[in-house]
Structures are given as C-alpha cells and as structure tokens.
Specification:
The structure holds 2 protein chains of 2 kinds. In chain A, helix 3 crosses helix 12. Helices cover about 70% and strands about 0% of the residues of chain A. Chain A contains 13 helices and 2 strands, in the order αββαααααααααααα. Chain A has a single domain, classed as MetI-like fold (Orthogonal Bundle), CATH 1.10.3720.10. The longest helix of chain A has about 30 residues. Chain A is mainly alpha-helical. Chain A has a two-stranded antiparallel ribbon. Chain B is an alpha/beta fold. Chain B folds into 2 domains: about 180 residues, D-Maltodextrin-Binding Protein, domain 2; about 210 residues, D-Maltodextrin-Binding Protein, domain 2, CATH 3.40.190. Chain B contains 18 helices and 12 strands. In chain B, the strands form 3 sheets. In chain B, strands 1, 2, 3, 6, 9, 10, 11 and 12 form an 8-stranded mixed sheet that branches. A two-stranded antiparallel ribbon of chain B has the order 4-5. A two-stranded antiparallel ribbon of chain B has the order 7-8. Classes of the chains: A mainly alpha, B alpha/beta. Chains A and B meet through helix 12 of A and helix 3, helix 11 and helix 17 of B.
C-alpha cells in the first residue's frame, strides 16, 4: 500500500495520540481483562483461576450494594443535572445587561477542584453547624411556609446519597457551556417564522429550541451517564469507607479498595470490566433510543 | 498573526519548563566521596520527620561508608508496595506496624532473622509486645522505630465541674459511663457536652473488644467476632447512641473540628475524656496549652479487674523492601536506629515512648510528655493488645467500622442485642472466607506454619 505524503503526514501527527492510546488505555484495558481471570497481588505472579473472581462478585453483598448506590446516584443525578444545565443555558442565552458576566459567574463552580469542593460541601451540610440546616432553621423560625425537618445530611443513611445528587448540580458548568454553544446554532429564521405565527416563548422553547438542541443534549447525557457511574472523589473524601453503613459506598470506591487496600488486582479488574460493560450497554441504548428522537440539521 | 505569536510564546515557555523540570527529575545529587547511598522513605512529615532526620544525620556523620538519603513520602503504604512491584523500591521504608503481615504475605519485604542474629539483636532487647509486631508466621520482617500506646485522657476541670473528683478519674467502665451521664449536657435537641464518646476519634473501632477482654481471632486461622466479650464490648460502645439518640450524637460529633485543631472535641471542652495515644500531649500543648489534663490507663469492666491496664499498642517499623539495591547497608542503618542512644533521641523527638526494654533515666526525666512513664509501663502490660497480624486486616478493620455504624444506627430502636450480634456476625461471615483464602495461599507458598510450630 502506498500512502500519499499527505496521509503520511497525517499519520505522523496522529502518532503521539496513537502511542498514548495504546500505552495508557488499550494495553491496560486488555491486561485488566486478562487479570480479571487471575489471582493477582501485584508482587507475586498472576495465577489463572478462570471465572472465580466473577463468581465471587455475584455472591458479594458489598458489590451489589455499591452497584445499587451507583445506579441510584446516576438515575437521579443525570436528569437533575441535565435539567439544571439546560435551564441555566436558556436563561443565560437571553439578551440581558451583563450577559457575559452572568455566563462567567455560573461557570465558576466548575472551576473549583473536586477536593476543596467536597470539603466545602461537608461544612454546608454539617448536621450541627451547616448553613443548609441553619437556613431551614431560619425558615422555620419565621413560620413562613410549614415546618421543614432538618435532616442529618451526612449521618443519616437514607439522606447521605442525596447530598451527592444535589452536589451534582453544582458542577454543570461544562455542560452548560456546551448547551450555550448549541443554542447559538439554532437558526434565527425559525424563531422569526414562529413569531409571525404568534407562538408564545414557551411554545418556541419546546417546539424549536429543544428539538434543535437535541444532538447536544444527547452528547451531554451520554457524557453525564459515564461520569456519574465513575463518581469517586467527592464520596471518597466526604464519606470515608462509604459511611454511614456503606450507603455512600460507590462502585469505583470498591474497585479502588479492592486494588489498593486489599491488593486484589484480579478482583478489582473483574469489577472494572463489569463497570465497562455496564457503561457500554447504557451508552449503546442511550444512543440507539435518542438517535431516533434527535434532530440533525443536515438531514 | 497575533495568535500565532501568542501560541509560539506559550510553546517556548513549555519547552523551557520541560528542560528545567526534566533536569531536576533526571539529575541525581552526585556523591563525590564514593559512599553507598541508601534511600530511605519515611511516612512522617513535620516534627516527626525532623526527629528522624536528626538521627539520619548522626548516622551519616558516624561513619564514612554509607550515606542515608532521607525522604519524607506521603501515602507510603501504597507507594512502597507499588515501587517494590515495579522493581525500584527504596532501601529502607518506614511503615506502620499493621503493614508487616501485608508486606510479608505479598513477598514485598525481606526477612531480617539472619541479619538481626548476626548483629546480636534479640527479642529480649525490646518490650516484647513491640518486637512481636515485627514478626509474621514465625519470621522477623521489620525492626521498631517509634512505638505508641493509648490511655484515657481526662479534662480535670470538666470532671470537677460535673462534681467528679479530678484526682480520682474513672477506673472502671461503669465509672466511665457514670461520669458520662454526669457531664452530659443538652440544650434543646443539641448536645453541648459529653463525658465520653466512643466514636471520637473513631480510629480504633475494633479496640473495644480488647478493653472487654475479647479476641478478634485465635491468632492463626479462626475469626471470633461474636464471642460474648465482643458482644458485650460493642453493646457498650452502642450504649451511648442508645442513651442519647443516634442522630443527636451524630450531630454533636459533626460539630467537632478536625483532630489537629483547637476545635478538637477534647481540647475544646466538649468531651471530658478521650481514648488517645502518647502523641496527644503534644497536640494539647500546641492547640490548648491552658488545658488542665491528666492520663490514666483506660478503664476495665468492674467485675473483671484482671483486665486493668489495657492499651492499644502500635508501632512504626523499618523494613527492607524486596529488590532493595543495598540491603546490607540498609540494615546497618536500621541497626543504628536500634541503639539506645539513637532510639531515645528519635522517640523523644517524636514525643513518644521507647520500644526498648532498657530506658535511660534522662529519657523519662527530659521527655516532653509528663505522662510518658504511664505509656511506657502500659506497653508491657499483659492486657496490651494490637491489631491482628494478617494481610486482610485493612479490609477487616473497615468491615468492623461499618459494623459499628450499623450498631449505632439501629441499637436505639431495640431492646435486646440483636443488632450487635447481627452486625458482628456479618463481619465474621465476610472475613472468615478471606482468611481461609489467605491460609490456602500461604500453605501453597509454604509460609503457613503447620501444627506444632510457632504461631503468628
């Protein structure tokens, strides 16, 4: 096969990426697949044990619990953060004074690194001194609406997971920017036509803006599914060991513990591969389902 | 074109950085004196590291053949393990006592029996409890650096305010519980003060077992989580949540600042007593020097006075990772640390007691901790206990922590000890198969002692 000089140049430029991909992604991925069928403690050679790791996982209560926690988080965090991101993008797309300032302002939380953010939220949700419960107290003192209970956010096993779901709305900045860019693509002519027909702003949002935005929504939802299944840093810092009662023990925390606390790389690799398959299947169906609904301008 | 210039300026900065950083990474401080360089990774930073650095400097001055390169490394438990698996370990690593089993099991450290024997180092040179932390399945894998033990620290003023004689702190568990009830103060739904809170600092959720004379395992192959002693111990632990309400106690505890801060519950006059280690004096000195405090052995159950003077013993250790380039020279340094003069310098610098059987009068007299003798004596008490020596301990400890959360969360609502037993049984069911698996593998590797040989 003879390559044109242009193709050669192209391949040459793609080479660094390709090397990086092979060394840091492809090889570890395949190696992890092999390891998942072995007993491997890092320091002694891996011993082939067939499907034992997978069998043990099926019987492992903590595995199912962490998987359940992760699904719970994803099921609520993905729609919630999507709605918040689209809502913010729509608001920030209106022509008001100081538009650029607001756009920057609402993006700012996305710039805060995960660790300080986790520690900050720990204090906000503190059961005794947290500002969230303080706010509820003030509300209750004034008898404005009705008496709101003050949950023990971090200590109550039924509540703790939801703290993380609430936190997921805080970091929608990146998705919001992508939605904003998507909104710029919507042809003005469509709105003008709708105006002539006397459509209301709400109708325009649902009939023009959101359909035109659908490819961007699909992209963001898929990315958001992937990242929410990988949630690690915030719970790892905020709820050591998944306290209380492992209600915040997420899948990737278990992988980490299996690999680096228990030195059980085979087990951790098996879990990693199961996670990969779950995300792969979810992404596949998300694409398949949404592809039908998504409006591509080129068509 | 402006952008092109901007981007090229950035690239130039990036290249310059790469050159400097690259040089810093690659370049090694050359030793012109042809000494053998022994790399030593130590977990401590701060003043503990300074104390060790001083000992390293002494060693480097004491001879001209070996140079110990001291490096303070965070998260050493993992890094040393990964560096060893990658074939580039340090020559000496300063780990924690409970690491011994994990490292030995994973073939990550070399046994020191022969080297120690050649150097004339014997078990009797040490407080034997500490020496035994360094062994696993009959072999010696490490030697001590600084040890620790724990005791009940009490706030004299808070005791007096509650009507308790501060010169006569609680001796039994029953007295400690009574003290807690006397100190306890609530304002509406909010706890203001407690006499004792077993979940603070919560570093040793497994330790109540030892206080009540319980055993977590038989020391070899059987886990024994649900013995009557253990059930009694964890029921007592949960009795605080039961008395005051789980959520109320949790909220109280969430109001505590971090351990190393003036908002530490004990230093902030929120809890009148606390189970803490020999290092506590140093933090009191730093964050609340005004505090009028004392330390005594942790209380024992009234009906079992033979359990008096219980303490958790822990130890920092020095090991030689497998694949170290200069194991002989590394051991020479470790041996130097074992001399009485070096060890006392190190331990008083780190403000802890000494692991050696012989302690000089000056060490006790000049020690910054006024209660150092108590900690020193407690360590050799027959009721002293430490973590089970098994590679699955980190996971086991997490399981016990989870179990204490379950107990504290459920005990309030029930009359009998059902939740305690169930939670401990869950730990048992989860960990016993893992221990069986370890033993199966150890048998295959030939490190599991068969019947009749030395246990542990």
């Amino acid at each position: 096969m003879k390559l044109s000089s242009q193709s050669k140049a192209g391949l040459l430029f793609a080479l660094p990426w390709f090397i990086g991909f092979s060394v840091f992604l492809l090889y570890p991925l395949l190696r992890a697949f092999y390891n998942s069928f072995t007993e491997y403690t890092v320091l002694t050679p891996a011993v082939w044990i067939g499907g034992e790791n997978y069998q043990a996982l099926m019987k492992d209560k903590v595995f199912w619990q962490s998987l359940g926690n992760t699904f719970y988080y994803a099921i609520f965090a993905v729609p919630l953060s999507t709605i918040v991101a689209i809502g913010l993008a729509l608001l920030l797309n209106t022509k008001v004074k100081g538009q650029a300032f607001y756009r920057t302002f609402f993006f700012l939380p996305a710039l805060v690194p995960a660790v300080p953010m986790a520690i900050l939220w720990l204090w906000l949700f503190n059961g005794e001194k947290g500002i969230v419960n303080y706010g509820i107290q003030v509300l209750n003192d004034h008898n404005w609406l009705f008496q709101v209970p003050k949950p023990n956010w971090l200590g109550d096993k039924t509540v703790a997971k939801n703290v993380l779901v609430i936190m997921s709305t805080w970091t929608v900045g990146h998705a919001m920017v992508i939605y904003l860019a998507g909104l710029q693509q919507v042809p003005l002519a469509l709105y003008e036509a709708a105006d002539l027909d006397g459509a209301s702003p709400i109708r325009k949002t649902f009939k023009i803006t959101l359909p035109m935005l659908s490819p961007v929504i699909m992209f963001n939802v898929i990315m958001s599914i992937i990242t929410s299944f990988q949630i690690f840093t915030q719970p790892y810092i905020m709820f050591p060991g998944g306290a209380p009662e492992r209600s915040t023990y997420f899948y990737s925390m278990y992988i980490y513990d299996a690999a680096f606390r228990d030195n059980n790389m085979g087990y951790a690799s098996a879990m990693g591969w199961i996670m990969f398959l779950i995300i792969f299947i979810l992404t596949f169906f998300a694409r398949k389902y949404m592809d039908k609904k998504v409006h591509y301008e080129a068509n | 074109m402006k952008w092109a210039k901007f981007v090229s300026a950035l690239s130039i900065i990036a290249i310059i950085w790469a050159v400097f950083a690259g040089e810093a990474v690659v370049k090694k401080t050359p030793r012109t004196d042809r000494r053998i360089v022994v790399t030593y990774w130590e977990k401590w930073g701060d003043f503990e590291a300074d104390a060790m650095r001083a000992v390293v400097d002494d060693f480097n001055k004491s001879q001209d053949r070996i140079f110990v390169d001291f490096q303070s490394v965070t998260n050493i438990g993992q890094k040393a393990m990964l560096a060893t698996s990658g074939g580039i370990p340090p020559d000496v690593a300063g780990l924690f006592g409970p690491n011994v089993a994990q490292y030995a099991y994973n073939n990550a450290v070399i046994p020191l029996d022969e080297l120690a024997q050649e150097a004339g180092i014997k078990r009797e040179d040490y407080i034997t409890q500490y020496y035994d932390i360094c062994t696993y399945r009959g072999k010696l894998w490490a030697l001590p650096s600084c040890p620790a033990s724990t005791a009940l620290h009490y706030n004299r003023k808070m005791l007096a305010d509650a009507g308790w004689d501060p010169d006569n702190p609680p001796k039994t568990i029953e007295e400690l519980t009574r003290l807690d009830e006397m100190v306890f103060k609530k304002d509406g739904d909010t706890i203001k003060k407690m006499g004792f809170l077993p979940t603070d600092p919560g570093w040793w959720p497994w330790a109540w077992s030892g206080v009540f004379g319980g055993k977590l395992w038989d020391g070899e192959s059987k886990i024994t989580m649900t013995t009557p002693e253990n059930i009694e111990a964890f029921t007592w632990m949960g009795s605080f949540a039961k008395r005051y309400g789980t959520a109320t106690v949790q909220s109280f505890q969430q109001g505590f600042g971090s351990f190393k801060s003036p908002q530490n519950a004990f230093m902030d006059n929120k809890t009148a007593t606390v189970l803490q280690g020999v290092w506590m004096a140093n933090f009191i000195e730093k964050f609340n020097p005004e505090l009028d405090w004392g330390a005594v052995a942790f209380p024992y159950p009234e009906d079992r006075p033979e359990l008096a003077n219980s303490t958790i013993i822990d130890l920092d250790i020095l090991v030689i990772p497998r694949g170290a380039k200069h194991p002989k020279e590394a051991f020479e340094f470790i041996r130097y640390v074992q001399t009485q003069a070096a060890m006392e310098k190190l331990c008083s610098g780190q403000k802890k007691q000494s692991p050696l059987a012989n302690v000089s009068e000056e060490f006790i007299k000049n020690h910054p901790n006024p209660f150092v003798e108590l900690f020193q004596d407690l360590a050799s008490s027959p009721t002293a206990y430490s973590t089970p020596k098994t590679p699955i301990w980190p996971q086991w400890a997490d399981e016990i922590k989870s179990a204490t959360e379950v107990i504290n969360g459920r005990i309030e609502a029930e009359e009998n000890q059902g939740s305690v037993r169930a939670a401990l049984q869950a730990v048992q069911d989860r960990m016993q198969p893992k221990l069986d698996n370890v033993i199966r593998r150890e048998r295959a590797l030939g490190i599991y002692p068969e019947k009749g040989s030395v246990a542990n």
